[in-house]
């Protein structure tokens, strides 16, 4: 891999970014390094490795262990090389008799209070303390081991994933500093002084009860066995490792899967990863146990009807059964009577193949993807305004932002590794503006400077963004040079006239948004006056009936203030699932082929037809909600769903279930018997990200390699199953490796022409567009021009049309939904891990005022009714909500959060309006009717599964 | 719960309402027609056509005009 550093080496202190070089001599070796580099790092770059314990290169130098002492010509004493900056002409000695004696003395003191159980210690084979004892030549401990010591200090085993063994702690503070500098949580501290000093979590609590978010940064930083992964303690040191990409959120962290044979010992964040730079969160770092969970589906299964037991069959029989059913449906009901859904959890190559199967083998464009229910408005809105359906920046770009505007996103919970990076920038002094109905955790960032919370009412985003833009325009804060050079003048003039209308003023919308006008004015000024201002947004923007309008409103604000086309600025959609960007790029939507090329364009179609050897339909296909309606109407009868749980994740569950029951053939390919599979006729075992090769594309358009670290449990990687199904349908597909699929993608997708596996392996990752114009990819987009017809940015008029879903006397509260850190999406993976200790049920958060009015206490069972349905959850009373707004998560299927969400959707894309549902809440004593039916059906389907001899489910 | 026809009526009306600032009714209709042409499947376009042939009573005026415009185009 092309790297400017060796990711496997610890250089002791972080790199300096200075362009000015200084030259010094270390042990007679001359070396030039950027100004600000420590002597320790300079030496390491020359492969002179100074002993160290408290230093590591992802933390600022601390200078506490003194092991790295050196001598510098002309200076007195023995300064610590980690805290001493390299200077021009400096002459440094790292090894001599005096230093050797000093270091041995230091090590001797450490070892006099350390258990000498090296042979049975979990860190044996990977212990920096042991290595340093060897490096300094420690041969005896003159103090003996009988004095006061910490050898009986208790172990903290409260965290399910790691153990804190205080007896092995050398109080180097690396864990404390990692928690502060890398993670930004400040959960750890050094308590006490001198001999009594010790690492403490929270207010001297155990790790689980403290604010610790279990990101693993402390475990990673620990140089001894004090903080060790439980899996390492149980299994011992790994013998090989393979770099791959996390399959949880859209940050797309790089990890080293550390292995013993085909067993995964631990996932260690990869320092070479360009998205995460060696950081991780509790999900990617620890929650991989689902991959080997007993619930995994290992054998293909079929059944004639959904009330029948499953029958385990061979792959050939299952694929043959599925193909015959699809063919007979098409014979009887026509070409358009079947379709498929691609997965944002699967690889680019797999997603590409599924949409190809649908377009080429099914012969229609009835392909859609779960981005329909999350970021489809991003695709639409950014294409309309900036010309490309993607975020404009790298994650690292935030480190150059002076103002960060977060709208409808919760980065510390949903994109934790990026959340930590954002917090690092906020601690450095960037201003924070949060527009969210809830007081989210980024607002509680320790050492946060200037910040403002705009607690708007759910459903009023567009009114708010218009008001922000109104202030920019009417107070003369726009970037006139940028607008004149980079934007379409006519569209700008039209938008300007619209936005300047008094109905868009903060004072005029105050009653609608609930946000004081002065707060909006202040936020607009902060944003517009910042040299670099960036917008980060999530599903709180898209999942509304005006989701697309809001995305365009965001782009308008960025254009008007000239915050596009360089580092530190931009429009940044935070993608939910690992490959949402990729599944959209790969042509999953019914109206466009890979690379966002419209099916009606004959030139585009012709290129695909030549390579695919078929004639393609020139009309868009059905979107997911249209598929459901058509299924209920009886016109749509067969569906192939890869790695997606529409029965749990899509809105208005009872409508979805009715549609699924109406199908003649539902083929589900998944790693578990998910909620959708309970309505299926064919169940094809899926493979986890650990079991296959491919690529994921993260929220910064970064294409990262996914590498197989263990064989698929069922014998096939997901792409191989799609290939088999295509062949059984009579459409030939021949690939021997996903790299060949990527070569075909590159051939047909203008933004991917320069992408191949060889180049990905060489560069580690590539950000599209990657083509002749940008041979090694494009970290920042729209630097010179926009990919629009005239190369200019387009201002779109953003009329605020309130949702029809309004609070009323019958449904006086507004429900909004979201996620939490420890669970992921529908929870199919994380619910099958120890992450359950943090969130084993979804609760309804309600403001104390609303609770008091209804006589509700913490933990009460609450019936939540909407126009769509009713469900029951426990109450959690919280001031994070405003009065009138309630909140829940949707990680547990039995919660039925989507039984109450309605089928209202975005006007342009049909993205569901998950974020606004009018509800009533009252105390109840039993589960809802839907929940009773759900429990009964779950029990029935688990029995049908166990009767097939397969593994039993949850 | 929507049946298919209710869904297309509500979808096209929503497109019209959200583009109301585009200008007069025919400017809005042009945008709506373009949107439907670009994003709607054949089956929904045909259902819209049938509904318009019946007079399209529940359609927003700009949506009705958009539908008529679309089907004139497809005849041409």
Automatic annotation (TrEMBL), chain B:
It comes from the Bacteria. Pfam families: FdsD. InterPro entries: Formate_DH_dsu. This is NADH-dependent formate dehydrogenase delta subunit FdsD. It comes from Marinomonas spartinae.
